[in-house]
Amino acid sequence: MSDVSARSGLHHSYWSKLENGMYQAPSPRHLQTIARTLDLSIEDLYGLAGYDIPERLPTFQPYLRAKYELPPEAVADLERYFTYLRNYYGIPDDQPVFPPLPKPKAANDQSAGDTESPTAERAA
């Protein structure tokens, strides 16, 4: 704690109180200092503290924790699912997952001219 206090310029008692959850909404100025000191995304810290950042959203895990108050197990499950979606649809990490792109057709799939979905075939 003394190391981050020295690097940030924030008193060690501030860090201790912050770590123990004594601040409901830490100052945005302090959050910027903390983000720089710990090499974290400011959007993540703002999101966790309940501040809005209209230009950018926090990353997935802090967003879910702040927005939905999910337990860590649920957040981990959702992260695994989004990783699955990215791999399944070939979505690069720097692009949003939603809305999903259509799944690429394999060589043995229906021809490009056939527009019926598997659901429509089952219903017929």
Helix-strand blueprint:
Blueprint: H1 2-8, H2 12-19, H3 28-38, H4 42-49, H5 60-68, H6 72-89, H7 118-123
Helix pairs in contact: 4-5, 5-6
Report mean pLDDT, rounded to a whole number: 76
Radius of gyration: 22 Å
End-to-end Cα distance, whole Å, is: 67 Å
Low-confidence segments: 111-124
* Percent strand: under 5%
Annotation field: number of helices:
7
Shape: elongated
**Helical proportion, percent range:** 40-55%
The strand count comes to 0
Commentary on this structure:
The protein is mainly alpha-helical and 124 residues long. The chain has one domain (2-103). Helix content is 54%, strand content 0%. It has 7 helices and no strands. α4 (42-49) packs parallel to α5 (60-68) and α5 packs across α6 (72-89). It is elongated. Residues 111-124 have low confidence and may be disordered.
Short descriptors:
elongated; about 0% strand; disordered C terminus; 7 helices; mainly alpha; about 120 residues
Quick structural summary:
54% of the residues lie in helices and 0% in strands. With 124 residues, it is an all-alpha fold.
